[in-house]
Amino acid sequence: MLTLHHLDRSPFGWKVRMVLEEKGVPHRLVVPANKTDDPSFARLNPYRLTPVLELEDGRAIYESTVINEYLEDAYPDPAMLPADPYERARIRMIEDTTDQYLQVALREFRAAQFEYAPPLLIRKAPDAIDRKLLESSRAKLHEHLARLESELAGRSYFGGDLFSLADVALAPPLTASLKLLGLLPDKRYPLIAAWSARIVERSSYAKSAPKEPLRIRD
Question: How far is residue 121's CA from residue 140's CA, in Å, rounded to a whole number?
């Protein structure tokens, strides 16, 4: 059986858990006790980050996007990448830019106004809020949201009729983090709202969602 070393609230762990559920792949979940200092975890991932997918023979795959690409190759049914080469590239671009840019802007937006004490976000005193970072990251997030809204034009999912690896990558920020932080729902993004409603109804979403999500404490 596959073993996923993960953190419950990590969006990157969540997106891998969702693919495992979508594909019905038997697996067990392990939360590392001490990934920073544990030499056995370092043998799985020299960068000491989760998620890590450990195969039955002990080999390991790390980086959430690479893990999901592996799962798509190893367990192709149901497909989560389109057959058309350009469409496959388009889905990969959406997933990659989500991880590299949208998630970074989201962390900046959160850090500008909250102390991170999982599972809590503790609101900073007004004079401790980084107003410049708050507004610059807010602007970046809306740029991402406008682009994603346009990607959904004429599509049920980012993969069209296909529930794709891009949809999985966007489920944590669009259905959870940005709602918690008050940026969604927004009337400027009706297609994202409709997409989110479809996503949260999937059984893989409920099964893979964090058991103890972040919450705000004022």
Answer: 21
- The ranges assigned to domains in the chain are 2-74, 85-217
Mean pLDDT in order along the chain per 10 residues (218 residues): 97 98 98 91 96 97 98 98 98 98 98 96 97 98 98 98 98 98 98 98 98 94
Domain 2-74: CATH superfamily, name plus number: Glutaredoxin (3.40.30.10)
- Whether pTM exceeds 0.85: yes
CB 171 within 8 A of CB 17: no
- Omega of the bond leading into 78 within 30 degrees of 0 (cis): yes
What is the dihedral angle through the alpha carbons of 132, 135, 137, 142, rounded to the nearest 10 degrees? -160
The structural architecture, per CATH, of the domain 85-217 is: Up-down Bundle (1.20)
In 33-103 the beta strands, taken as DSSP E runs, fall at 52-54, 60-62
